[in-house]
Amino acid sequence: MLQMTVAIAILGVTQMHGQHGKHGNPEDLEAYIARMEEPGRAEWQKPDEVVRALGLQRGQVACDIGAGPGYFALRIARAVGEDGGVYAVDVEPRILEALRKRLQPTGLRNVTPVLALSDDSLLPPRACDLILIVDTYHHFPDGPAYLRRLGRALKPGGRIVNIDFHKRELPVGPAPDHKLTREEFLQQAAAAGFALVGEHSFLPYQYFLVLQPKP
Question: Which of 118, 51, 42, 115 is nearest to 84 (CA)?
Answer without folding.
Answer: 51
